[in-house]
Amino acid sequence: MASRDDILAALRKHAPPPVAAPSLDGLGVAFADPLDQLAKAMASVGGACVRVADIAAAAAAVAALPQAASARRVVSLVPGVGQPNVDLAAVADPHTLADLDLAILPGELAVAENAAVWVDGRALPHRAVFVITDHLVLVVHAAHVVHHMHEAYDRLAGRPRGHGLFISGPSKTADIEQVLVVGAQGARTCTLIVVG
Amino acid sequence: MASGHPDVAARFVANDERLHWHDKAVWWVRQKRDVASAVVPDWEALRSAAAGIKRHTLSRLADYLEEFERNAVALGAQVHWARDAAEHNAIVHGLLVDRGVTKLVKAKSMLTEECKLNPYLEARGIEVIDTDLGERIVQLAEEPPSHIVMPAIHRRKEEIGELFQIHLRTRPGASDPSYLTEAARHHLRDKFLAAGAGLTGVNFAVAETGGLVVCTNEGNADMGTSLPPLHIACMGVEKLVPRERDLGVFLRLLARSATGQPVTAYSTHYQGPRPGAELHIVIVDNGRAELSGREAIRDSLGCIRCGACMNTCPVYRRSGGHSYGYTVPGPIGSVLAPARDPATFATLPFASTLCGSCADVCPVKIELHHQLLALRQEIARKHLVPWQKRTALRLAAWLFAWPRLYRFVGWMARRLVPLVPRRLLYVRWNTWGQQRELPPMPRHSFRARYRRLARGQS
């Protein structure tokens, strides 16, 4: 580990004088109606947001989506929502998910300011599922909608270690002449169902 | 120096129509950033917090790196350390060779561009596929990225169509971005499914958790790390933040500053490897420790690679990313490149008007224009300034030291310059006059006008 020791020694040798860490208190702005803001943010990132009363209504909302109606291979990790015909736990090799049409996944929380939905990767038998699927539906409880990212990290603090991510809308790119194209490498659509 | 910024930029500006197209395309991104930041009421507080976190981290970076390593290893990752580009490349190559990997998919990583990893691996028989659409475009065009967020911003859709027609067999003449992106999606899908390993950069590494955060809009990092059994993440030492909650600050700033989005589509937090797979983290110094000791420019290590400084820079917009000749172009590149190699990049700190717009938009408040000025001084001390500029400035300094002489020369110039033939004034070694016109000579000096004003006679 000569390199490691060299690098650490060089960093210590050149280190600037100590600087205290800043306080993050007071950052983040609360919204008057976070659910309304969440729907607006979701629309702005190219996704859709649907509010329903309960899980049965969520199932109906998903069934009404055109991308669900035409889906042949479906994964659902939200009990009672969707018509899953692929058992993710029984899939040995994630490469076989390449032709997955629809994935319905639970979101742990949704952030009103930017439509970022936290998906716990530990709950997914295969990480690829959220990005390899053609269409993505995320289901979040209305009580788990937070105002901003600082609140989100406060809620996520202390969770067991492991993979997780914020998803904000569908996969997109503007790499060709700044023209926004939805559906780059990942999901072509992203629908957020807010329950309750 | 034939490959200095003014020389390469001269070729770019020779095409006036394209120059204005590029200027407009990049400025549009700056405007999107303005809209996205204006709706955040605590924007300035966020910038201050981000700058503060970066300064704090840098002041005890070695401690945080040790904490990060401990936690990353506890999560099952393997951590490697590389002093320089050569060591970094050898580590990555070794990991691939040991596992018999011949096909590598890569998400965007400016560090691997800096280390020139792609040619190193390709020379050793490994197929390297850049999977960010913009990076794939410039890879097919066999040129470096011209922007750190939008690598192919200098390419027109018709040119990309021609490139895709050759490599992806798209329809001749097709240039519709949706059609081309869809073609790239299928092309890259095949590459993801065939890859033996995925490599990503790192946006943020968290000391407290040992985790990594990688941000993309396309989802290419997630595709590349969730199929093959090996994930290699390459990061500079400066990517560290102390606590996970610090990410709240940076994720609110990054995408808004970069593209005007409220957050990237995918902000993935890797903590340990996938079950049954490997995660290797390569931590690279490559001159960063030394840079952290240079007070005038050390804040440049806080850069989160959003590209806002290039989007706003009047010189970048009108000269293009390739004119900088370095992995990172624009104002931040004009600091980082000469900080590393002042002789090769001596022209870059001068590729600026020092207007300070870069510092105004920087989400981590790097005082880029002050740093560029400091580097100009350093380059002058090292005698790396061209002789014309050196002579002219020495002459001016001498003249300014003799007020009476200065006044006399001014008096002479007001009378003589209008009489001198144009071709004598704009001789070849008057580089200042190559793109500029002298203003018409005033009849009276400023001092004379000021005296009259002071006497109330104007």
Order of helices and strands of chain A: HHEHHEEEEHEEHEEEE
CATH class of the largest domain in chain B: Alpha Beta
Helical content of chain B (DSSP H or I, runs of 4+): 40-55%
* CATH topology annotation of the largest domain in chain B: Rossmann fold
Q: Averaging pLDDT over every residue of chain A, what do you get?
A: 96
Helix content of chain A: 25-40%
Give a short account of the largest sheet of chain A: 5 strands, parallel
pLDDT < 50 stretches of chain B:
none
What can you tell me about this protein's structure?
The complex is a heterodimer of chains A (196) and B (458). Chain A has 196 residues and is α/β, with parallel strands linked by helices. Chain A has helices spanning 2-14, 34-44, 55-63, 66-69, 129-132, 149-156; strands at residues 48-52, 74-76, 102-106, 109-111, 116-120, 135-141, 145-146, 164-167, 172-173, 181-182, 189-195. Chain A contains 6 helices and 11 strands. Chain A has a 5-stranded parallel sheet with strand order 1-11-6-3-2. Chain A has a 4-stranded mixed sheet with strand order 7-4-5-8. The longest helix of chain A is centred in the N-terminal third of the chain and has 13 residues, at 2-14. In chain B, a hairpin with a 4-residue loop joins β5 (204-206) and β6 (211-216). In chain B, α2 packs antiparallel against α12, α9 (157-167) crosses α10 and α16 runs parallel beside α18. Classes of the chains: A alpha/beta (196), B alpha/beta (458). Chains A and B meet through α1, α5, α6, β8 and β9 of A and α2, α3, α4, α8 and α10 of B. β8 of chain A pairs antiparallel with β9 of chain B.
Task: Give a brief description.
The complex is a heterodimer of chains A (about 200) and B (about 450). Chain A is of the alpha/beta class.
What's the layout of helices and strands?
The complex is a heterodimer of chains A (196) and B (458).
Chain A: H1 2-14, H2 34-44, E1 48-52, H3 55-63, H4 66-69, E2 74-76, E3 102-106, E4 109-111, E5 116-120, H5 129-132, E6 135-141, E7 145-146, H6 149-156, E8 164-167, E9 172-173, E10 181-182, E11 189-195
Parallel strand pairs in A: 1-11, 2-3, 3-6, 4-7, 6-11
Antiparallel strand pairs in A: 4-5, 5-8, 9-10
Chain B: H1 5-13, H2 16-38, H3 43-59, H4 61-74, E1 78-82, H5 85-98, E2 103-106, H6 110-114, H7 117-122, E3 127-130, H8 133-140, H9 157-167, H10 177-194, E4 197-200, E5 204-206, E6 211-216, H11 220-226, E7 230-236, E8 240-241, H12 246-258, E9 266-270, E10 278-284, H13 288-292, H14 308-312, H15 314-319, H16 330-340, H17 357-361, H18 368-381, H19 387-400, H20 403-416, H21 422-425, H22 446-454
Parallel strand pairs in B: 1-10, 2-3, 2-4, 4-7, 5-8, 7-10
Antiparallel strand pairs in B: 5-6, 6-9
